Model the fold of this input.
Amino acid sequence: MNPSGESEGRSPSDRFDIVQKHVLPDDITQAVLARKDVARYLRGGHGQSELQARERINGYLDELRTTQRYPIYRALKHPLYPILRKVERVDEHVEIAQQATRAGRVIYVSNHKSHLDYLVEPLVLDDNGIRPPVTAAGINLFGGPLGLLHRHVTGAIPIRRNTKDPAYLVTLKAYVAELLQRSDLLFYIEGGRSYTGEMKTPKTGLLHATLQAEVAGSVIVPLAVAYDVVLEDHILPHQAVKRRARPFGREVAEMVRYAVGYQSRAFVTFGKPIPLAGYDPESRRDVMGLGHQIRDAIGLLYKALPTAIVAAAMRPSTTRRELEERADAIIDVLRQSHANLEVQSGREAVEAGAPMLADRNIIHVERGGRYRVRERTVLRYYARTIQHLLVPRRAVRTH
Done:
């Protein structure tokens, strides 16, 4: 038996259907309202009556409430085929997730590269017969038809990333804690996607909530996702330069434009489980230390792909020989950092990576074999995806 009381002999879809029949939304609502932190907030005043405080918490609970209909979720592969056929899913060490889910509750913690992550990572689990987690996603993804899909099919929960409202924070942590009594969870340690390509500082709100849940035997499974080319590669770096995000609807329209001719592999790599026993949820030092431990683990799992190596080795104008030599030097540094390498030589990196960057109009390969930069901002984005592995950084200069 696992923490949910589910029989190991049943398929993931059968097990989740049983959960849906016996765990109604009102059960979670009552459990959340009964938690100590929520009860303390209701009694605490905060410039409002207990009735007003309860109304605020109930409002946030309505926003967070989600339903995962696993059989329908699996069927989504068919209408989403035009997108999914452009992305070849490659899993690494998926047996770690298989063993972890057999043993108990699992919290998958991933980096965040693209909106495709929400499709790719759960489908890798499904491809391997692993029970589906509930995914935490930014509330900006919950408008229109996509919001209905997340709320009523995939089972994603909307997260207000920048709010400081104590009513929301106490409700979110209590809701996640109760959800983990019933389901696995997937969330992104960086919060949103990285606009620069670099790994971001860990956000600890959801991590704190998972520790507060105190589910016996629960583990963190670090998860890294990497793409040869990111669908939003011409969008994200320019948002970083302008220091503001585009409205989601506008970004979707741009993603459709850049999806023309798009092809990529998506590497999803699973890391060694990190048991949560022994970490004190009330200790900020413990929570921050765990956040950095997870981020560092994800950084080593992250697949160092040819496109990133070529981007880091590229100069405004260079010959193939020069490019291969610089790529060789970068691979040597990556190897010393125990990076998850996909190629072993500069020649392999240039042969595989340069055509993909040229197809995205990021670099141009002249007939005489000289390589020139076309989109420097986008090229830097790819170079920075492996910057955390280039230690010491002075050994190889990137731009």
Summary: The first strand starts at residue 87 and ends at 92. Residues 1-25, 393-399 have pLDDT under 50 and may be disordered. Residues 284-301 form the longest helix (18 residues). The domain at 304-395 is CATH 1.10.10 (Arc Repressor Mutant, subunit A).
